[in-house]
Amino acid sequence: MSKTPLLIATAFALCATTLIADQAEARERSRAVQRTAQGGSVAVERSNARFDSQRQRTWQADGQGNASAARSGSLSGANGGSAGYDRSAYRNADGSAGRQGSAYANGPNGGTASTSGGISRDADGNVTGARSTTATGANGNSYTGSTTVSDGTLVHTRTCTNAAGDAIACPRGH
């Protein structure tokens, strides 16, 4: 009986073990969970050679029809880029409800973007909300836009400028 297949299998197993150990050392992950009768939270962190990230989530309810929840997270890339978000929502026993949130992104070559806003409904069913967004390319051109809604009327405005601050045409669809 030849020892070659056994030697090849042993060498493969040693290489695979080394690769798995290297992968395990290169990646880290943690998760924390808490729960109560009224709510809870979850937090997760990850880290490896390409990025680091964190995210959290919380929720609560009082048993009377009132509840809320929130989420947030961030990411940082090894190449210098980063992004994140933050959002929350609520509902009340009287029928009112709402949500709000924001997000951002920063490119490794200088481009940035951010948005934030929210919308709510009061106990009588009236809805109001607003959102604003800005983006700047690595070349310095920028976009600023906002949208509002109130009493069923939607209004959107936008402005685009070049790196010198001069007004330019906005891309279609924005």
TrEMBL record:
Residues 34-151 are annotated as: Disordered. Keywords: Signal. Residues 1-21 form the signal peptide. Residues 129-151 have a biased composition (Polar residues). Residues 65-77 have a biased composition (Low complexity). It comes from the Bacteria. This is Uncharacterized protein. It comes from Pseudoxanthomonas mexicana.
